[in-house]
Amino acid sequence: MANKRSSLLLLLLPVLAFAAKPADDCATCPRVELERDGKPIVAVKTSPDEVSDVFVIEYLDLQTGKIEKLDEKKGLVVVAGKAFWFDSRSKLADGLAPPDRAEAVYNPDRENDSGLPYLVELRPAAGEKTGHFDLQRFIIYDPDPYQTQVSFADDARAYGHLALVERAKRLFENITLGTGSVAYVEDEDRFEVKMTDAPDAVTVVQGKSRASGRRLGYDNASGMAVLAGPVKLERSGEKPLSGEADELVYQVDDKTLTLYGHVMLKQEGRITSADTAVIIEAQGYAYLYGQPVSSRGEDGELSGEVVRYNLDNGELLVLKGVKATFEDSGR
């Protein structure tokens, strides 16, 4: 790897001699740490080097702004006055075209005959800032039976096989967690990351609640981790609960799990549906919102606009717009 400025670095980690176990127990596991208001957000590689030595740091560049030109036949794109060349290995997000705002991730050390830097990825812009930024990217891969762990201030954890952590100072810090593959492209001196969507590829755990979905994206500016669905929810306890939704959001600041879209909770023969459910694990309650929230069991049906749900015993309290129908048990 002979780059002008050491733009790509593969850390060949020492062999870690330990059996499969949670990353919490491994003080020597390689990790990347972000911080939000004094709270650590940590991505940890859990597999020993003999299983996977993929803990990669890439130093790239980022140009943000409007797309001024995009010529796929010539392999040329211009973003905010800067031109790049690209080929079939470059990632171009679907639907982007002039004058959309975009982020051009590029490697300045790989130029074509015209002296243009190589475009690694073209994607929608995360904000309104325009200009050049240094991009630091970490790639972590843990194959079965290991999983990369992302911990959110010791309150919640997420697990997957492939994590991509990106930092662009003054612009963004984010984590993408899911599954996929990583390959080193020797002739281009770079790593190719392919993230794939798969059911239950990511698991989020907080307290007694465990949710699974396709992919998780965490934005450190907002403190929100979004789990793409379909989401499956399981909650342990004396009266186990299961559920489903279109999407789940974990909020670092208030430590809540929020289910969005076609929310359904099942517990001991009772089925409750809502548009949104805010789970507060520390209290053992969920607050359900809908038009209406509807809950039906053997003893009848209850509905309302806002309902408090006791996650441990299944008791419901309608806080707004109560309506109930009770079944005659014949007793």
List keywords for this structure.
single chain; 331 residues; mainly beta; OB fold (Dihydrolipoamide Acetyltransferase, E2P); lipopolysaccharide transport protein A fold; 26-stranded mixed beta sheet; 26 strands
Tell me what the structure shows:
With 331 residues, the protein is mainly β. Among the domains are: 63-134, Copper binding periplasmic protein CusF (OB fold (Dihydrolipoamide Acetyltransferase, E2P)); 202-326, lipopolysaccharide transport protein A fold (Sandwich), CATH 2.60.450.10. It is 0% helix and 62% strand. The chain is built from no helices and 26 strands. The protein has a 26-stranded mixed beta sheet that branches. The radius of gyration is 23 Å and the shape is elongated. It starts with 7 loop residues before the first strand and ends in a 5-residue tail after the last strand. Mean pLDDT is 90; it is low at 1-22.
Largest sheet: 26 strands, mixed
CATH architectural arrangement of one domain: Sandwich
Roughly what is the average pLDDT, rounded to an integer? Answer: 90
The ordered string of helix (H) and strand (E) elements is: EEEEEEEEEEEEEEEEEEEEEEEEEE
Let me know the CATH homologous superfamily of one domain.
Lipopolysaccharide (LPS) transport protein A like domain
Number of strands: 26
CATH first level of one domain: which class?
Mainly Beta
Instruction: State the end-to-end CA separation.
Output: 81 Å
Assembly classification: single chain
Percent in strands: over 45%
